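Bench log. Compound arrived from synthesis this morning; before running ITC I wanted a structural hypothesis for how heme C sits in the protein. Inputs:
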Amino acid sequence: MRTVMVLIVAAAAAFGIAGFVANGAGSQRSDSVPQYTVQNQLVRPQNYREWIYLSSGLGMAYSPNPNSAPLFTNVFVAPEAYRKFVATGTWPEKTMFVLEERAASSKGSINQGGHFQGELRGIAASVKDSSRFPSKWAYFNFGLDAKTASPNPPESCWNCHNAHGAVDNTFVQFYPTLKPIAMKFGTYKPKE
Ligand code: HEC
């Protein structure tokens, strides 16, 4: 009986370790720093939902007459970069963000008012990687299911982020837990 118990425990431990290794190899740490293909494309971050959640916009629009249906935009940042920001008020090299777009639904279940989040509409990402991009930050669109994406031209993304982001190309003015940190470290530059 005792031998059987020992065997069961040993088998469970072995499976546990095997599971950990398999999981660790494909995602976890390696996924929260940018990975590129040989053609300089960014690999879609798979586990961004396990990163740090910063905030959600609802129907945010950057032109006076937006004509598309409002979406939720959920912003996530890789945990290592987040911890550096909390300690210094700045983003380290290899910082990676994901902006996740989801439909804003209002009819469903018991809901009588307001909006809740629905299906995925696409993800975008940004990375700070000066060794690879002379403009330091680069921006990518993955849509619903692209596995890799090329950097977008500056006029589509970078220009607006650089002109209006309150801290180093990022929109910390819209991330309520980060804004006071940046102000404390003096890295917050009020922008229009
Ligand atoms: C006209 C201005 C503007 C343009 C152009 C723009 N963005 Fe943004 N972006 C924003 C704003 C505002 C936020 C904050 C969103 C929120 O709070 O939900 C944001 C947030 C982000 C974030 C989260 C990290 C951060 O920098 O704060 C990513 C990633 C991102 N955008 C990617 C892109 C990509 C990719 C493109 C080009 C396809 C793009 N953006 C074009 C205004 C812009």
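What the model suggests: The CA atoms of residues 98 and 125 lie 4 Å apart. The two ends are 73 Å apart (CA to CA).
ITC booked for Thursday regardless.
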